[in-house]
Specification:
Layout lengths: L5 H4 L1 H4 L2 H16 L2 E2 L7 H5 L7 E5 L24 H14 L10 H6 L1 E5 L4 E2 L11 H13 L6 E5 H5 L11 E5 L16 H11 L10
Parallel strand pairs: 2-3, 2-5, 5-6
Antiparallel strand pairs: 1-4
C-alpha cells in the first residue's frame, strides 16, 4: 500500500477485514462525490517519510477542502496554490524562530523528505465540506500510526498544535520522545501561544542533544 517500511508496520491493519471494508467505503466516496486529496495522494505522508526516517511528527486535522489544495501532507498545499492562513503563520513563526524567510509556495514536501511526518488525523475530505470524513474510520488508522511511532526506540519530536492535535498526546507515553504543544497556527488562535513557541529550534535542539541530525527547515 505504501511502498516502504510502513507496510510492515501496518501489516496487521492492511490485512484486516475491517480495513479492507473501510477502503471500499472510501472508494465509494470518491465515486459518489468530489473528494480530496486525489486518491493517489491519500498516503503521501507515509510514502515520503518512512518509519525509520521519521524524526518529527506534525499532526494536522483533515485535508484542505478546496480544489487543488490538498496533497496528503498536513498544513501543506500543492505548488501554485495560494498559501493558507495557518501556513502563512507557520512561516512567520519559522522566520521569528530561525530567521528563515517565508517560502514562495506552500508545498512542504521537502520537510517530509527531511524526516518530518506531516500526518493528518483524517486523510480525506469532501470538496468544500471541512471535517466531512471525520469519525468515519481514519482516526483508527492514524492513532495506530502515532502509537507505532511511540514505540520507536529512537527519540522523536511530536508537534501538536491546537486542541485537536493535543488530544493525541495520550498516545505518546514513551518518555524518550519530546512533545511540543501550543495553540493552533490559525489566525483565530495564533496570537494565544503559537507565535513565540519556537517549535523549530526546540525540535533541532532536542534532536542534536540525542545525536540525531537536525531538520533543515529551509524550503
Amino acid at each position: 500500500m505504501i511502498g516502504n517500511d510502513w507496510d510492515e508496520k501496518l501489516t496487521i491493519i492492511e490485512n484486516s477485514p475491517g480495513f479492507k471494508k473501510f477502503m471500499h467505503l472510501i472508494d465509494d466516496k470518491y465515486k459518489g462525490s468530489v473528494v480530496y486529496p486525489p486518491k493517489e495522494f491519500i498516503f503521501n505522508a507515509l510514502k515520503l517519510t518512512s518509519y525509520k526516517d521519521t524524526k518529527v511528527v506534525i499532526v494536522g486535522q483533515d485535508p484542505y477542502h478546496g480544489e487543488g489544495e490538498a496533497h496528503g501532507l498536513s498544513f501543506s498545499v500543492r505548488k501554485g496554490v495560494k498559501i493558507p492562513p495557518s501556513l502563512q503563520n507557520i512561516y512567520k513563526e519559522l522566520y521569528s524562530d530561525l530567521g528563515i524567510a517565508p517560502h514562495s509556495d506552500g508545498d512542504l514536501t521537502k520537510w517530509a523528505k527531511e524526516g518530518v511526518l506531516l500526518l493528518n488525523a483524517v486523510l480525506t475530505v469532501e470538496k468544500d465540506k471541512p471535517a466531512s470524513h471525520r469519525s468515519i474510520g481514519w482516526e483508527l488508522l492514524t492513532d495506530y500510526i502515532i502509537s507505532t511511532l511511540n514505540e520507536k526506540e529512537e527519540p522523536i519530536v511530536f508537534i501538536l498544535w491546537g486542541n485537536f492535535a493535543k488530544a493525541k498526546q495520550k498516545l505518546i507515553t514513551n518518555k524518550r520522545h519530546l512533545v511540543l504543544t501550543s495553540a493552533h497556527p490559525s489566525p483565530f488562535s495564533a496570537n494565544y501561544g503559537f507565535f513565540g513557541s519556537k517549535p523549530f529550534s526546540k525540535t533541532n535542539e532536542f534532536l542534536k542533544k540525542n545525536n540525531i541530525g537536525p531538520i533543515n527547515w529551509q524550503l
